[in-house]
Write a structure and sequence with these properties.
Elements (H helix, E strand, L loop, with lengths): L1 E11 L2 E12 L4 E5 L4 H4 L1 H11 L8 E7 L11 H10 L3 H7 L2 E3 L2 E2 L5 E2 L4 H10 L4 E4 L4 H4 L6 E4 L3 H8 L29 H13 L3 E4 L6 H7 L9 H14 L13 E2 L7 H5 E2 L5 E2 L1 H4 L3 E5 L7 H5 L2 H6 L1 E6 L2 E6 L2 E7 L16 H6 L6 H5 L3 E4 L15 H19 L10 H7 L4 H12 L5 H18 L6 H11 L2 H5 L2
Parallel strand pairs: 3-4, 5-8, 8-9, 10-17, 10-18, 11-14, 14-17
Antiparallel strand pairs: 1-2, 2-4, 6-7, 12-13, 15-16
Helix pairs in contact: 2-3, 3-4, 3-7, 8-17, 8-20, 17-20, 18-20, 19-21, 20-21
């Protein structure tokens, strides 16, 4: 009997775990058995392996082969196991190749012609290999740009089974993965394209500076979607750690990842018919990330929010508070990150009249139009902003560009970071700490207490109003929120009654 080993990975959420592939070639009737809790794509690999080896003119054992994927209790899915399993079988009778492959992580799907095709989840797999101090990773040509984003590990590109086997046998025929061209934010829409809407533009700047959630309401064509699309362009660029997390999410979802995508916070904008599984993530046996995870370190934009069922919207309350999603499937839990800014948008009513006097809806229709927005969800929204379709301007001449606004946002976030330390955003500061150690001045706190006493805001609303006041204070370059900052914060927060009557 002969035994060959390689290493590959199995995805668990947006992280990867190393999987040892063992191939035992011994006496018995010719055939391949794959054990280790693999799905259909893993079990079907035995047909691809034999055909690829034959077309690559390599020697396939004419005996019984048992392939084991361990740990055996970890579910394994995907076609990226192909190349690792094939090399393990070939190395079982070649001690030199087996020794070289022991410290190598192998990824790639095999075509019947022996070519190595791109797969999903390469970036988290390479990061896992680096974390476990593996020396080398073999990746398909189609994944080399995202694989090259990882540091501290040698990433080689295997274009074919024949080339990968030649390298395992000692021939230096594989080149290192080449990173993509560093990207810019040129593809992000610019605020200079947006005419008018001075108040809404300023509110969006406040949201960006403090990481606040916002609800936009206004008639069709008043710029709600334009504001949402431009919000990522004024947010600070992603740090390297954040960029790798965003890249890992895209990689798991099968979205191409390059450096241009990793410089600007992502924008996730699902259609209003999105289901709870589409919003939070899900799937049978192997959950996939949902829209809230695709918005991680970025913006989740829900347009036409009046059309989204209340049960779906209320699912956002947990990720808004805990910034992660935990999906339970059988006896296994999958965790997806979900740290995002929520941006909602809706028309004022079904007929979309801006003024109540022009509305053709019945009283019941107008009252129930936004009834799917529950009180607890609205209480987690920091700002309620109205856009207008009247009194605007046609020309965009003189409108501020995103770069100018982004500079002010960066300066405000810098002030917050210096003040709070680890928490770079005002929205991250704990409410008890804020009230005890960083309140507004006496007149500002008196105004907050007055609104709390008459029920205009909740206790959670007090914390959110203070965070908002600190953001306005930072944009103004002041040291402590005063009465004006608190008043503007309370005005931006609005109230649930105002939303219902919008």
């Amino acid at each position: 009997m002969a035994l060959g080993r390689t290493t590959t990975t199995a995805l668990d959420g947006i992280t990867a775990r190393l999987v040892t592939v063992e191939a035992n070639v011994g006496p018995g009737l010719p055939g391949i058995s794959v054990v280790g809790l693999g799905d259909a794509s893993v079990r079907e690999a035995r047909y691809r392996l034999r055909t690829a080896v034959a077309n690559a003119a390599l020697d396939w054992p004419k005996s019984k082969i048992v392939l084991s994927l361990s740990p055996a209790d970890l579910p394994k899915r995907g076609s990226h196991f192909d190349l690792a399993m094939c090399l393990a079988v070939l190395a079982a009778r070649h001690p030199g190749a087996d020794a070289r492959l022991r410290d190598v992580v192998v990824l790639g799907e095999l075509g019947l012609d022996g070519s190595v095709r791109a797969v999903t989840g390469v970036l988290p797999s390479v990061l896992a290999a680096a974390r476990e101090n593996k020396a080398t990773v073999l990746v398909p040509p189609g994944n080399q740009e995202e694989a090259a984003l990882a540091e501290g590990i040698d990433v080689l590109v295997a274009p074919s089974l024949e080339a990968a086997w030649a390298w395992a046998c000692g021939s230096p025929v594989l080149h290192r993965a080449r990173p993509g061209i560093p990207g810019t934010s040129a593809g992000v829409p610019d605020f200079a394209d947006l005419a008018g809407q001075h108040d809404a533009r300023w509110a969006t700047e406040v949201a960006a500076a403090g990481g606040h959630h916002m609800f936009l309401t206004g008639p069709p064509g008043s710029g709600k979607s334009m504001l949402a699309e431009r919000l990522p362009g004024i947010l600070p660029p992603l740090s390297r750690a954040e960029a790798l997390e965003v890249g890992a999410i895209r990689s798991v979802a099968g979205v191409s990842t390059d450096r241009a995508m990793l410089t600007v916070p992502p924008l996730s904008a699902p259609h209003h018919t999105v289901t709870r599984a589409g919003l939070l993530g899900g799937g049978s046996g192997h959950p996939s990330p949902g829209a809230v995870t695709h918005a991680h370190h970025g913006v989740l934009f829900l347009d036409e929010v009046s059309e989204i069922p209340a049960a779906t919207l209320d699912c956002l309350r947990t990720p808004l508070e805990h910034r992660r999603i935990v999906l339970q499937r059988g006896n296994r839990s999958t965790v997806f990150p979900s740290r995002f800014q929520l941006l909602l948008a809706a028309n004022p009513c079904r007929c979309a009249a801006e003024n109540p006097g022009d509305c053709t809806c019945t009283v019941a229709e107008r009252r129930n139009y936004l009834s799917n927005l529950s009180g607890p969800l609205l209480d987690r929204i920091d700002m309620i902003v109205r856009t207008t379709g009247k009194g605007g301007v046609v020309s965009t001449e003189g409108a501020e560009a995103s770069a100018v606004i982004a500079a002010r946002v960066a300066e405000a976030r810098g002030r917050a970071a210096r003040r709070w330390g680890n928490a770079a955003r005002n929205s991250d500061v704990a409410g008890p700490y804020l009230r005890r150690h960083a309140p507004a001045d006496d007149t500002g706190m008196a105004l907050v207490e007055a609104h709390l006493a008459v029920g205009d805001i909740t206790q959670r609303g007090v914390d959110r109003a203070l965070r908002l006041a600190w953001t306005i204070c930072d944009l103004a370059g002041r040291d402590r929120p005063d009465l004006d900052h608190v008043a503007r914060a309370l005005e931006l927060r609005g109230s649930q009654l105002e939303v219902r009557a919008a």
